[in-house]
Amino acid sequence: MPPIISIAGLEKRYASGLQALKRVDLEIRKGEIFALLGPNGAGKTTLINIVCGIVTPSAGKVTVGGHDIQSDYRAARSLVGLVPQELLITPFETVWQTTRFSRGLFGKPGDAGYLEKVLKDVALWDRRKSKIVTLSGGMKRRVMIAKALVHEPQVLFLDEPTAGVDVELRQEMWHVVRKLRDSGVTIILTTHYIEEAELMADRVGVINRGEIVLVEEKAVLMHKLGKKQLTVQLAQPLAEIPARLASYKLGLGHGGRELVYTYDTQAEHTGIAGLLHDLAAAGVEFKDIQTTQSSLEEIFVDIIKGKR
Question: In this predicted model, what pLDDT tens digit does every residue of 227-273 receive, in sequence order?
Protein backbone atom coordinates (compact mmCIF):
# COMPACT_ATOMS: atom_id res chain seq x y z
CA MET A 1 0.00 0.00 0.00
CA PRO A 2 1.46 3.42 -0.95
CA PRO A 3 2.17 5.83 1.92
CA ILE A 4 -0.46 8.43 2.77
CA ILE A 5 2.34 11.05 3.08
CA SER A 6 5.58 10.95 1.11
CA ILE A 7 8.38 13.47 1.79
CA ALA A 8 11.53 13.50 -0.34
CA GLY A 9 14.55 15.82 -0.11
CA LEU A 10 12.60 18.42 1.86
CA GLU A 11 14.51 21.56 2.85
CA LYS A 12 13.58 24.86 4.43
CA ARG A 13 15.93 27.84 4.53
CA TYR A 14 14.80 31.20 5.88
CA ALA A 15 16.00 34.62 4.70
CA SER A 16 17.97 34.94 7.93
CA GLY A 17 20.14 32.03 6.81
CA LEU A 18 18.63 29.55 9.25
CA GLN A 19 18.19 26.11 7.70
CA ALA A 20 15.27 24.61 9.59
CA LEU A 21 15.10 21.37 7.57
CA LYS A 22 17.93 19.52 5.80
CA ARG A 23 16.97 17.00 3.10
CA VAL A 24 14.23 15.25 5.05
CA ASP A 25 13.02 11.93 3.63
CA LEU A 26 10.02 10.37 5.36
CA GLU A 27 7.01 8.20 4.56
CA ILE A 28 3.90 7.94 6.75
CA ARG A 29 1.71 4.84 6.41
CA LYS A 30 -2.04 5.02 6.13
CA GLY A 31 -3.81 4.33 9.44
CA GLU A 32 -0.80 4.53 11.75
CA ILE A 33 0.04 6.73 14.73
CA PHE A 34 3.45 8.22 14.02
CA ALA A 35 5.22 10.08 16.83
CA LEU A 36 7.71 12.74 15.79
CA LEU A 37 10.09 13.50 18.64
CA GLY A 38 12.78 16.13 18.94
CA PRO A 39 14.03 18.94 21.19
CA ASN A 40 12.81 22.52 20.85
CA GLY A 41 13.93 24.04 17.56
CA ALA A 42 14.55 20.64 15.95
CA GLY A 43 12.21 21.35 13.02
CA LYS A 44 9.05 19.46 14.05
CA THR A 45 6.60 22.34 13.62
CA THR A 46 8.28 23.54 10.42
CA LEU A 47 7.87 20.08 8.92
CA ILE A 48 4.19 19.93 9.89
CA ASN A 49 3.50 23.44 8.59
CA ILE A 50 5.02 22.61 5.20
CA VAL A 51 2.89 19.48 4.79
CA CYS A 52 -0.19 21.49 5.81
CA GLY A 53 0.56 24.25 3.29
CA ILE A 54 1.30 26.96 5.86
CA VAL A 55 5.04 27.27 5.09
CA THR A 56 6.59 27.08 1.60
CA PRO A 57 9.49 24.62 1.24
CA SER A 58 12.83 25.71 -0.20
CA ALA A 59 13.40 22.37 -1.94
CA GLY A 60 12.03 18.85 -2.13
CA LYS A 61 8.67 17.26 -2.78
CA VAL A 62 5.73 16.37 -0.52
CA THR A 63 2.61 14.47 -1.51
CA VAL A 64 -0.49 13.72 0.55
CA GLY A 65 -2.67 10.92 -0.75
CA GLY A 66 -0.76 11.18 -4.03
CA HIS A 67 -1.43 14.93 -4.39
CA ASP A 68 1.53 17.32 -4.55
CA ILE A 69 1.20 19.97 -1.82
CA GLN A 70 2.25 22.75 -4.23
CA SER A 71 0.95 21.85 -7.70
CA ASP A 72 -2.25 20.23 -6.35
CA TYR A 73 -2.68 22.28 -3.22
CA ARG A 74 -6.45 22.14 -2.80
CA ALA A 75 -6.71 18.36 -3.07
CA ALA A 76 -3.72 17.83 -0.74
CA ARG A 77 -4.95 20.31 1.87
CA SER A 78 -8.45 18.83 1.91
CA LEU A 79 -6.97 15.53 3.14
CA VAL A 80 -5.21 17.12 6.12
CA GLY A 81 -6.42 18.33 9.51
CA LEU A 82 -4.13 20.31 11.82
CA VAL A 83 -4.36 20.87 15.55
CA PRO A 84 -1.69 23.51 16.30
CA GLN A 85 -0.15 24.19 19.68
CA GLU A 86 -2.03 27.49 20.03
CA LEU A 87 -5.72 27.60 20.94
CA LEU A 88 -6.98 29.54 17.91
CA ILE A 89 -10.72 29.70 18.52
CA THR A 90 -13.27 32.51 18.77
CA PRO A 91 -14.20 32.76 22.47
CA PHE A 92 -17.83 33.88 22.12
CA GLU A 93 -19.00 31.33 19.55
CA THR A 94 -20.57 28.07 20.66
CA VAL A 95 -18.88 24.74 20.09
CA TRP A 96 -21.45 23.94 17.40
CA GLN A 97 -20.99 27.25 15.60
CA THR A 98 -17.20 27.11 15.45
CA THR A 99 -17.06 23.52 14.19
CA ARG A 100 -19.79 24.12 11.59
CA PHE A 101 -17.92 27.18 10.31
CA SER A 102 -14.68 25.18 9.96
CA ARG A 103 -16.47 22.60 7.80
CA GLY A 104 -17.75 25.37 5.54
CA LEU A 105 -14.23 26.74 5.03
CA PHE A 106 -13.41 23.59 3.05
CA GLY A 107 -16.50 23.91 0.88
CA LYS A 108 -18.21 20.98 2.54
CA PRO A 109 -22.03 21.08 2.60
CA GLY A 110 -23.70 21.32 6.00
CA ASP A 111 -24.14 17.92 7.59
CA ALA A 112 -25.61 18.03 11.10
CA GLY A 113 -25.29 14.27 11.43
CA TYR A 114 -21.56 14.31 10.76
CA LEU A 115 -20.99 17.26 13.09
CA GLU A 116 -22.83 15.32 15.79
CA LYS A 117 -20.59 12.29 15.20
CA VAL A 118 -17.39 14.36 15.45
CA LEU A 119 -18.50 16.11 18.65
CA LYS A 120 -19.45 12.77 20.21
CA ASP A 121 -16.09 11.28 19.16
CA VAL A 122 -14.26 14.03 21.08
CA ALA A 123 -16.70 13.95 24.03
CA LEU A 124 -18.13 17.43 23.37
CA TRP A 125 -21.70 16.67 22.30
CA ASP A 126 -23.12 17.65 25.69
CA ARG A 127 -21.30 21.00 25.45
CA ARG A 128 -22.29 21.83 21.84
CA LYS A 129 -24.32 24.89 22.93
CA SER A 130 -21.63 26.18 25.31
CA LYS A 131 -19.59 29.22 24.38
CA ILE A 132 -15.86 28.53 23.98
CA VAL A 133 -15.00 31.04 26.72
CA THR A 134 -16.79 28.88 29.29
CA LEU A 135 -14.80 25.71 28.53
CA SER A 136 -11.80 24.31 30.39
CA GLY A 137 -8.38 24.11 28.74
CA GLY A 138 -8.82 20.42 28.00
CA MET A 139 -12.21 20.98 26.39
CA LYS A 140 -10.83 23.81 24.26
CA ARG A 141 -8.13 21.42 23.05
CA ARG A 142 -10.85 18.94 22.07
CA VAL A 143 -12.67 21.73 20.19
CA MET A 144 -9.46 22.24 18.19
CA ILE A 145 -9.45 18.54 17.30
CA ALA A 146 -13.13 18.73 16.28
CA LYS A 147 -12.41 21.76 14.05
CA ALA A 148 -9.59 19.82 12.38
CA LEU A 149 -11.85 16.81 11.75
CA VAL A 150 -15.09 18.31 10.46
CA HIS A 151 -13.95 18.42 6.81
CA GLU A 152 -13.35 14.63 6.97
CA PRO A 153 -9.54 14.54 6.53
CA GLN A 154 -7.57 11.33 6.14
CA VAL A 155 -4.58 12.69 8.07
CA LEU A 156 -4.56 14.52 11.40
CA PHE A 157 -1.53 16.42 12.68
CA LEU A 158 -1.44 16.96 16.44
CA ASP A 159 1.28 19.45 17.36
CA GLU A 160 1.85 19.12 21.11
CA PRO A 161 -1.86 18.31 21.69
CA THR A 162 -1.62 17.93 25.46
CA ALA A 163 0.75 20.79 26.25
CA GLY A 164 -0.40 22.41 29.48
CA VAL A 165 -3.06 19.77 30.06
CA ASP A 166 -3.18 17.87 33.36
CA VAL A 167 -2.59 14.12 33.58
CA GLU A 168 -6.28 13.15 33.72
CA LEU A 169 -7.13 15.20 30.65
CA ARG A 170 -4.07 13.86 28.84
CA GLN A 171 -5.35 10.32 29.32
CA GLU A 172 -8.75 11.45 28.04
CA MET A 173 -7.06 12.92 24.96
CA TRP A 174 -5.16 9.68 24.34
CA HIS A 175 -8.49 7.84 24.33
CA VAL A 176 -9.84 10.27 21.71
CA VAL A 177 -6.75 9.82 19.52
CA ARG A 178 -6.97 6.01 19.67
CA LYS A 179 -10.62 6.16 18.59
CA LEU A 180 -9.67 8.35 15.64
CA ARG A 181 -6.95 5.91 14.57
CA ASP A 182 -9.41 3.02 14.88
CA SER A 183 -11.76 4.90 12.52
CA GLY A 184 -9.02 4.97 9.86
CA VAL A 185 -7.50 8.43 10.41
CA THR A 186 -3.71 8.59 10.18
CA ILE A 187 -2.26 10.47 13.17
CA ILE A 188 1.06 12.34 13.23
CA LEU A 189 1.85 13.40 16.76
CA THR A 190 4.56 15.71 18.04
CA THR A 191 5.03 15.71 21.77
CA HIS A 192 7.33 16.54 24.66
CA TYR A 193 5.61 13.89 26.78
CA ILE A 194 7.58 10.78 25.91
CA GLU A 195 4.97 8.58 27.56
CA GLU A 196 2.50 9.66 24.85
CA ALA A 197 4.73 8.19 22.18
CA GLU A 198 5.53 5.14 24.27
CA LEU A 199 1.86 4.37 24.95
CA MET A 200 0.34 5.26 21.60
CA ALA A 201 2.72 5.31 18.65
CA ASP A 202 3.11 2.55 16.09
CA ARG A 203 6.33 4.11 14.81
CA VAL A 204 8.69 6.76 16.14
CA GLY A 205 10.77 9.30 14.23
CA VAL A 206 13.44 11.46 15.84
CA ILE A 207 14.36 14.82 14.32
CA ASN A 208 17.31 16.91 15.49
CA ARG A 209 18.74 20.10 13.98
CA GLY A 210 16.49 19.77 10.96
CA GLU A 211 17.46 16.20 10.11
CA ILE A 212 15.61 12.92 10.60
CA VAL A 213 18.10 10.85 12.56
CA LEU A 214 15.97 7.75 13.10
CA VAL A 215 12.65 6.19 12.05
CA GLU A 216 11.71 2.87 13.58
CA GLU A 217 8.83 0.70 14.75
CA LYS A 218 8.40 1.56 18.42
CA ALA A 219 8.67 -2.02 19.63
CA VAL A 220 11.72 -2.68 17.44
CA LEU A 221 13.34 0.55 18.59
CA MET A 222 12.96 -0.33 22.24
CA HIS A 223 14.24 -3.85 21.62
CA LYS A 224 17.15 -2.72 19.47
CA LEU A 225 18.32 0.27 21.50
CA GLY A 226 17.00 -0.46 24.95
CA LYS A 227 19.03 -2.06 27.69
CA LYS A 228 17.78 -4.08 30.60
CA GLN A 229 18.95 -3.94 34.17
CA LEU A 230 18.91 -6.77 36.68
CA THR A 231 18.72 -5.55 40.26
CA VAL A 232 19.81 -8.10 42.86
CA GLN A 233 18.57 -7.35 46.38
CA LEU A 234 21.12 -8.71 48.84
CA ALA A 235 20.48 -10.52 52.12
CA GLN A 236 23.41 -8.66 53.71
CA PRO A 237 24.91 -5.34 52.60
CA LEU A 238 28.30 -5.29 50.86
CA ALA A 239 31.02 -2.74 51.49
CA GLU A 240 32.45 -3.38 48.03
CA ILE A 241 31.96 -5.66 45.04
CA PRO A 242 33.97 -8.91 45.28
CA ALA A 243 36.93 -9.00 42.89
CA ARG A 244 35.73 -12.19 41.18
CA LEU A 245 32.63 -10.31 40.01
CA ALA A 246 34.58 -7.42 38.43
CA SER A 247 34.00 -8.65 34.85
CA TYR A 248 30.25 -8.03 35.20
CA LYS A 249 30.78 -4.29 35.77
CA LEU A 250 28.19 -4.25 38.53
CA GLY A 251 26.92 -1.18 40.31
CA LEU A 252 26.51 -1.15 44.07
CA GLY A 253 23.62 0.85 45.44
CA HIS A 254 21.04 1.38 48.17
CA GLY A 255 23.61 1.40 50.95
CA GLY A 256 25.32 -1.73 49.62
CA ARG A 257 22.08 -3.72 49.62
CA GLU A 258 21.65 -3.89 45.83
CA LEU A 259 23.79 -4.99 42.90
CA VAL A 260 22.80 -3.64 39.48
CA TYR A 261 23.76 -5.52 36.33
CA THR A 262 23.17 -3.91 32.90
CA TYR A 263 22.96 -6.14 29.84
CA ASP A 264 22.17 -5.90 26.14
CA THR A 265 18.68 -7.07 25.18
CA GLN A 266 19.99 -8.32 21.81
CA ALA A 267 23.02 -10.20 23.08
CA GLU A 268 23.08 -13.93 22.41
CA HIS A 269 23.98 -14.54 26.05
CA THR A 270 22.85 -12.10 28.73
CA GLY A 271 25.31 -13.40 31.33
CA ILE A 272 22.62 -13.59 34.01
CA ALA A 273 23.05 -17.30 34.62
CA GLY A 274 26.81 -16.88 35.02
CA LEU A 275 26.32 -13.91 37.34
CA LEU A 276 23.98 -15.80 39.64
CA HIS A 277 26.38 -18.76 39.70
CA ASP A 278 29.34 -16.51 40.52
CA LEU A 279 27.36 -14.68 43.24
CA ALA A 280 26.77 -18.02 44.96
CA ALA A 281 30.43 -18.99 44.51
CA ALA A 282 31.48 -15.70 46.09
CA GLY A 283 29.22 -16.33 49.07
CA VAL A 284 26.89 -13.45 48.24
CA GLU A 285 23.32 -14.29 49.25
CA PHE A 286 20.35 -12.46 47.74
CA LYS A 287 16.66 -12.13 48.60
CA ASP A 288 15.14 -11.08 45.31
CA ILE A 289 15.90 -10.07 41.73
CA GLN A 290 14.06 -7.57 39.50
CA THR A 291 14.46 -6.52 35.87
CA THR A 292 13.75 -3.13 34.31
CA GLN A 293 14.11 -1.93 30.71
CA SER A 294 15.08 1.39 29.17
CA SER A 295 12.16 3.73 28.63
CA LEU A 296 11.63 5.46 25.30
CA GLU A 297 12.67 8.70 27.01
CA GLU A 298 16.08 7.30 27.91
CA ILE A 299 16.55 6.01 24.36
CA PHE A 300 15.50 9.38 22.91
CA VAL A 301 17.89 11.35 25.11
CA ASP A 302 20.77 9.04 24.20
CA ILE A 303 20.01 9.38 20.47
CA ILE A 304 19.99 13.18 20.68
CA LYS A 305 23.27 13.11 22.59
CA GLY A 306 24.75 10.88 19.90
CA LYS A 307 25.28 7.85 22.12
CA ARG A 308 23.25 5.44 19.98
Answer: 677 788 888 888 889 888 888 888 888 888 888 887 765 565 667 77
Task: Identify whether the C-beta of residue 162 lies closer than 8 Å to the C-beta of residue 191.
Answer: yes
One CATH from 3.40.50.300, 3.30.530.20, 3.40.30.10, 1.10.287.80 for 1-79+153-225: 3.40.50.300
